[in-house]
Design a protein that fits this description.
heterotrimer, A mainly alpha (about 325), B alpha/beta (about 325), C alpha/beta (about 350), B: Rossmann fold, 8-stranded mixed β-sheet, 5-stranded antiparallel β-sheet, 11 helices, 13 strands, globular, C: about 350 residues, alpha/beta, 10 helices, about 25% helix
Chain lengths: ~325, ~325, ~350
């Protein structure tokens, strides 16, 4: 009844990509594991995008400053040992505050606080958003309904007033409190974004293939879905870090942070308290303000590279001219 | 292959799957699959053919336990699937009835190497193997489907493989689980023509050398003929005709099968075309009334066709059709 | 059972030999500017199309057939560009014309039917609105004329004009493709270019659409270039056939000629890769190997690595298109002086 079919035809031939696209693809047999490949891809994207390169360089400078503040600023930021209200000079690069503290030292040492808030809050926000958003998308049904409802309720509440209320209720707080407060109020936006992205992936056959293979749902979410979203996750992290900087500084500025912490926001608070701009000490307000702006810009610029990875339509069109033969 | 007294490998009994359509408040149902009773034996390739909307992909997903039946039952090796409760039982079934998907470009996770799926499958389904043994089993499976050198190909990423190679990886994954029946959902539709034959030969090889049955779902009758032992033709959620593939193609009894065969382009044959060439509009079966679902397109429809849904009945041993007008002698021909 | 004109004679009445060709493509080459250098996607293609003729272009993915189509329609976007050759449409070379100059020709004299109607049709506009858009863009302003012509083209393709109000997702796949064709025929162009219009359709809808296209062609007299990967589909409908491989024309001739006596080993392999539903059931092997990577140019014939009749000369000499009775073949087996037989035949 069945015809004997001659042997299985093999696929010999040189290593190389195929498929519907013409030509170009990566050479075969790259030995790196997925994490290294993802990092390499991101590094390439950053290098090839000028805006992102600028952002990366700026961020690197801030990180270095945050890691080794003692190498750059030799004075103790907290010591009110100097003559107050000094102008810019070689001894005090930015002058001194009304309390006799060296402003430059405060700025440099404050970088550490700001960066810690940015990275920790950024990571925590993104982490929670991933769990909630992707689980909602993949589990669907009642899970999706309830998680989405929860997310949407938090989304609708305006973040900044909520931040103020919570921080005030906690009688202001140190860095940890700030981080928690920012995380709790910010994750919902990213969760929505990630849910949409995960939903668009839900019908990809490799997820159905994993399910038919017998994988558990949690495994599929963590191992199969999330790694395909790495570019988006990095972009979300950068955005959340940016907003964490802005929110934290704002809270500190209005006095809800711990005024004794050395940070840019608290510098602004004290500057405001002492009417710095009116009393001829503009650097007290301008310097931390400018740093906040530049750090925020660094995150935003870096984000351009990841936008383009995620959405190839945003990539600049190659304008290389192809020469006509005649 | 005639039905023997022994239980076939897989059998469905009046399998039905409906979907709710319209908004949350709608009461309309789409009858994707209705009353399908089919059987697949050991070491055979059964082709399930039909247009889009015929229900063939839904059947595959019902058999793969991606959907649950609205009613009816599926029996595998005599056991009803509804009796599967524990995770161990479910895992065993998934290992014995794996699925290969249609789109090679979306069926593999782009962030992992080609070996990822098969190694996971082996970890889940053959836990007695150690790491080195799993690797060797995976290599054997890759070689069995014609991916050589296996060790090198296993290290590649999906974007470094062609569509044909990715589909072979899908078959290798299924093979590694030592299945009894592979559900192949249009495995060659998205491949280039000259690559398709290679994959079809892989399926035939799996049947001949590994003793695996295959349910080959397709809309391409010619490839069904090339590789299958039996052919089941579906229309609008029902089985229209079923039987040995050569017999059904040589003497089609259901008018829909005749229409399908007449529409297949064959450069070696003459083209016959009538003024009322059928448009090829498959129906969306929403809240259907009783009666044959092909009646609006059928030139042979009689009064009974509008009132009574025809049941699948055996006209000639092994060859059945669901048609009031079809006769054992195949004298009535609707479409040439 | 009356039959419809599906003749595949090479000389349909009123075409070749009387007027000049409606389209003449000469030595057309298209390249993509990639990171590693230019990739030649279309390599010196020549073709001629006379009024009312149906030309089929057949090939698999990566052979350049879609790029060729886009080049003819002047729809290439960077990084692809025409680097050599001419596309003379109704006597005028379209290569190098500005967008404004092309706009006069587009849709009025030459129109395009894309591969996937669901992607080409605007999902948030009704069919009627899209037809109206197309007409307004080309200077038709009278509401009566727009309404009348819209209903007329829909009827021409067998769609009830009541569907002018329907949205694309409400129509079946076959109807969507038909409305694309209706849109292409709004101004009764002289040339309609179709890029795999039936690939998303089932076999019955596909056959019906082909018959419809052929009927319209007989009625309105436009020429058709039909690109597909399915050779058997065009076998009954086209007069001439071009088989493409690796951006080059591998074989070209009359459809019946190419089907009855395929000469290029790729054409032979392609034809044998289609299992038939009638006749003997025989084991087939397809064509071993994979289409070549065009970004790595090589010496000699592109098909040599996969060719069952390869000779030593094939990896050294680039074959040209050699004339044979009724066709052109790019194969050293048919070079002048060769006898068409491989060693050991």
């Amino acid at each position: 009844m069945s015809m004997p079919i001659s042997g299985v035809s093999t696929t010999p031939g040189p290593a190389g990509p195929g498929g519907p696209e013409p030509a170009a693809g990566a050479p075969a047999g790259q030995a790196a594991p997925p994490a290294t490949r993802a990092l390499a891809r991101m590094a390439r994207a950053v290098r090839s995008n000028r805006k992102a390169t600028v952002g990366a360089v700026l961020l690197a400078i801030f990180i270095l400053v945050g890691l080794f503040p003692g190498l750059i600023a030799h004075d103790n930021p907290n010591a009110d040992a100097y003559a107050p209200r000094l102008g810019i000079s070689t001894a005090h690069l930015l002058g001194t505050t009304a309390y006799g503290q060296d402003m430059f030292a405060q700025l440099i040492w404050g970088t550490r606080n700001v960066l810690i808030i940015a990275f920790v809050a950024g990571l925590a926000t993104t982490g929670i958003a991933v769990l909630v958003g992707v689980a909602a998308a993949y589990l669907g049904g009642l899970w999706d309904g309830s998680l989405s409802l929860f997310t949407d309720v938090l989304l609708v509440i305006p973040i900044f007033p909520l931040l103020i209320v919570i921080a005030a209720y906690l009688h202001g707080g140190n860095t940890i409190v700030l981080i928690i407060v920012i995380t709790v109020t910010s994750w919902s936006y990213t969760a929505r974004q990630l849910r949409s992205q995960a939903l668009s992936l839900r019908n990809r056959d490799f997820l159905a293939a994993a399910r038919v293979r017998g994988e558990r749902r949690l495994y599929i979410i963590v191992v199969e879905v999330i790694p395909t979203m790495t570019s988006l996750l990095v972009a979300c992290f950068l955005t959340n870090a940016l907003y964490a900087v802005l929110f934290a500084s704002s809270l500190q500025f209005i006095g809800l942070g711990d005024p004794n912490t050395v940070s840019w926001g608290t510098m602004l608070y004290w500057a405001q308290n002492n009417a710095a701009l009116q009393t001829g000490q503009p650097m007290w307000a301008i310097a931390p303000g400018a740093c906040i702006a530049v750090l925020g810009a660094a995150f935003a610029l870096l984000n351009y590279a990841f936008d383009e990875i995620g959405n190839p339509a945003l990539r600049p069109v190659r304008r290389t001219r192809v020469k006509r033969a005649n | 292959m005639t039905e023997t007294a022994a239980e076939p490998l897989l059998r469905t009994d009046r399998l039905t799957r409906h979907f709710k359509v319209g908004g949350a408040l709608s009461r309309r149902t789409l009858h994707a699959v209705d009353d399908v009773s089919l059987a697949i034996g050991a070491r055979e390739i059964v082709a399930l053919a039909g247009e889009s909307g015929s229900g063939k992909s839904t059947i595959a997903r019902l058999l793969a336990k991606i959907y649950q039946p609205t009613s009816g039952e599926i029996y595998f090796a005599g056991r009803p699937l509804s009796s599967i409760r524990s995770r161990a039982d479910l895992l065993r079934y998934r290992g014995e009835v794996p699925m290969v998907f249609q789109d090679p470009f979306s069926a593999t996770n782009p962030v992992f190497r080609a070996s990822h799926g098969i190694l996971r499958a082996l970890t889940l389904h053959r836990p007695e193997l150690g790491r080195q043994q799993r690797y060797e089993e995976a290599q054997r499976a890759f070689e069995a489907v014609g991916l050589a050198p296996a060790a090198e190909i296993m290290q590649r990423y999906p974007h470094e493989l062609s569509g044909g190679q990715r589909q072979r990886v899908g078959f290798a994954q299924a093979l590694a689980m030592r299945p009894k029946l592979i559900l192949a959902d249009e495995p060659v539709s998205m491949l280039d023509v000259s690559i398709r034959i290679g994959l079809l030969n892989v399926m035939a090889d799996l049947r001949d050398k590994q003793g695996v049955s295959v349910l080959y779902i397709t809309h391409d009758i010619a490839s069904a003929r090339y590789v299958a032992d039996r052919l089941i033709v579906m229309y609008a959620g029902h089985i229209a005709e079923a039987g040995p593939v050569e017999e059904v193609l040589a003497r089609p009894r259901h008018p829909y099968t005749q229409l399908l065969l007449s529409a297949v382009p064959d450069p070696r044959a003459e083209l016959h075309v009538t003024e009322e060439t059928d448009r090829g509009e498959p129906p969306r079966v929403i809240d259907p009334t009783p009666g044959c679902r092909f009646r609006w397109r059928c030139p042979l429809a009689i009064d009974e066709c509008h009132r009574v849904t025809p049941a699948l009945r055996e006209l000639v041993p092994g060859h059945s059709a669901a048609c009031h007008v079809a006769r054992a002698d195949a004298a009535t021909v609707a479409f040439r | 059972m009356s039959s419809v004109r599906t003749d595949t004679d090479p000389q349909p009445p009123g075409s070749r030999g009387q007027a000049g060709p409606v389209l003449a493509v000469r030595d057309l080459s298209v390249a993509y500017a990639m990171d590693r250098g230019a990739v030649l996607a279309v390599d010196r293609v020549n073709l001629e199309l006379y009024p009312g003729e149906f030309l089929g272009i057949v090939g698999e993915s990566g052979c350049g057939k879609s790029t060729l189509l886009f080049a003819i329609a002047q729809l290439l976007a960077p990084p692809a560009a025409i680097i050599a050759g001419s596309v003379v449409f109704k006597g005028e070379n379209m290569v190098g014309l500005t967008d404004d100059q092309l706009a006069a020709v587009r849709w009025r004299d030459m129109s395009v039917v894309m591969q996937s109607a669901m992607n080409a049709l605007n999902p948030v506009k009704s069919i009627g609105a899209q037809l109206k858009d197309a007409m307004k863009a080309h200077g038709v302003t009278s509401a009566d004329e727009i309404a009348g012509r819209s209903a007329e083209v829909l009827r021409m393709v067998g769609i009830d004009p009541v569907h002018l109000k329907s949205f694309p997702h409400q129509l079946s796949g076959g109807m969507r493709q038909r409305s694309m064709i209706a849109m292409a025929l709004l101004f009764t162009p002289d040339l309609v270019i179709m890029d795999e219009p039936t690939s998303a359709l089932d076999v019955v809808a596909q056959r019906s659409l082909m018959v419809q296209i052929k009927n319209l062609q007989a009625e309105l007299g436009f020429a058709v270039i039909f690109v597909t990967h399915d050779m058997s589909l065009v076998s009954h409908f086209s007069q001439r056939l071009i088989v493409m491989y690796a951006g080059q024309v591998a074989e070209s001739g009359t459809t019946r000629g190419v089907f009855d006596t395929p000469r290029h080993p790729y054409s032979i392999g392609l034809m044998e890769a289609f299992p038939s539903i009638r006749g003997e059931r025989v084991p087939l092997t397809g064509i071993p190997g994979r289409p070549p990577d065009l970004s790595r140019p090589q010496q000699g014939c592109w098909f040599a690595p996969r060719c069952p009749k390869v000779m030593t000369a094939c990896t050294e000499t680039n074959p040209e298109l050699y004339p044979v009775p009724d066709a052109l073949v790019r194969c050293l087996l048919y070079a002048p002086g060769a006898d068409g037989k491989a060693a050991g035949d």
